Amino acid sequence: MSDSNTTAPNTALTPSGGERRDLIILGGGLVGMTLALAAAKAGITSHVIDRADPADLVAEGADARASAISTASWNLFTNIGLAERLKPLGCPIDSIAVTDGMKPGRIDFTPKPEEGSLGRMFANRDLRIALFDAAREEPAIAWHVRTEAVRRDRGPHGVEVELADGRILTGSLLVAAEGRQSPTRDEARFALAKWDYRHRATVAALFHEKSHENTAWEIFYPAGPFALLPLLDDEQGRHRSALVWTVAEKDAAGVMAMPDAMFVNEVASRMHGVLGAISLAAPRMSYPLRFHHAGRVVDERLAVIGDAAHGMHPIAGQGLNLGLRDVGALVEVLTEGMRLGLEPGDAQMLARYEKWRSLDTFMVMSVTDGLTRLFGIPGRLPSAARRLGMGAVQRLPALKRFFMDEARGMSGKLPELLRA
What we know:
By secondary structure, the protein is an alpha+beta fold. It has helices at residues 30-41, 54-57, 71-79, 83-86, 124-136, 183-187, 249-257, 260-271, 319-339, 347-375, 380-395, 397-408, and strands at 20-26, 46-50, 66-70, 91-93, 95-100, 107-109, 119-123, 141-145, 149-155, 158-163, 168-176, 192-208, 215-221, 224-231, 239-248, 278-294, 298-299, 302-304, 310-311. The strands form 3 sheets. Strands 1, 2, 8, 9, 10, 11, 17 and 18 form an 8-stranded mixed sheet that branches. A hairpin with a 2-residue loop joins strand 13 and strand 14 (224-231). The chain starts with 19 loop residues before the first strand and ends in a 12-residue tail after the last helix.
C-alpha cells in the first residue's frame, strides 16, 4: 500500500490511468479506515483518500480524546484482525455508574462475569495507530494521503474522483466518511435534521489517587453531563481516566481559559472525591455539541457513513459505535450482493443498506437526544422525578438488561461482523 496509485493483482487500468477498485472511500479516519479493512477481509478493494498526514494524526499529544468501544464494535475489530494489536491498549469497562448530581438513587450497570465487559476505553491515537498499521499491510487498500478530492462524478457505469494533484481514481461505489462537515453529502443535497445544543464538550485526561476499578461514571448536572471514563494506568502506574465535561456555550471560553489549578479544582468539586485527589494528565480540548441526522444515506453510487450521516451528543458514548455499525452493515450488504454477481454500486444493495440502518440510527439518536434534554431540566422537582425513575430501573432486572444491551451495542439486527 502507498500514498500514490499502485497496481494490485487482478485490477484493470482505466483509460485515464487510474486503478479501478470496488470502493472509493473519502475520509481515512476511524470509520473510513475500518470500512476499508473490513471490506478488504471480504475481498473488496478500495481507494482511501484523506487530506491529513497520518503522522500528524498519531503524533504524541495531537488528540487527547478517548472512545468507548462497545462489545459489538470490539467484535468487529476482532473479526477484522485487530484484537491482538488493540487488546493490550484498552481498559475494560466493567460497570457504569449513572447518577443525578451525585445525589441518592444512582443506577449501577454491572454485567455478570460470564458476559464480559460493557466495552473498552481506547485512546483515539491508539485506535488510529492500529488501523493505519493494518492498512499499510493490506494490498486491497490503496491509501492516498495529504490530498483531497476536487471532483466527484457519479454515473450509471461507475464513479470517478479527481485528486488535487490531477490523478484520476475510478470505482463502482463512492463512500463518504468525511465527518460532520462532509462536502460529498452536501454536494448530493441530502436533507439534514439538525440543531445546536449550545453546549461544548471539554475533554481532558486525569490522574487520580484511587483506582477507578474499571468503572465509568456518568454524572448528570443541569448544565450538562460530566463523564469519567476509565483508562489504563500509565507506565509509572498512575491511575487515569478520561474526562468529558459538558458546559454551556456561554461558559466554555471561561472554562478553557482557567489556569490548570483552577480547572482541576472545578473538576474535583463535581467528582465529590470518588477517585480521590486529581491532577491533569493531558491538555484540554473543546468542541461544540450539535445534532444532525441525514434523512437519506444513499444516492446513485453513493453511501454516506459515520458522522457524515449522523452526529449526536456524546452523552451515551455511541457516536463512533454507530458509525462502526454502518461499516458492518455496508460490508455485509456488499458481500452478499457481490456473491450474486451484483457490483458494489448496485441500487438494490444500497437501498437495502439504507433500510437496515435507518431504524437503528433513528432509535439510538432519539434516545440520546431525549436523555440530553431530560437531564438538562433544572430544579428540585425534575431532579426528584429523575432519581425516582433511576431507582425503578435499579430495582428492575429486565430494564437494566435492556439498557446494558444498548450500551454494549448488542440490540437489534446486528451485522455478522459485529457478532461474537
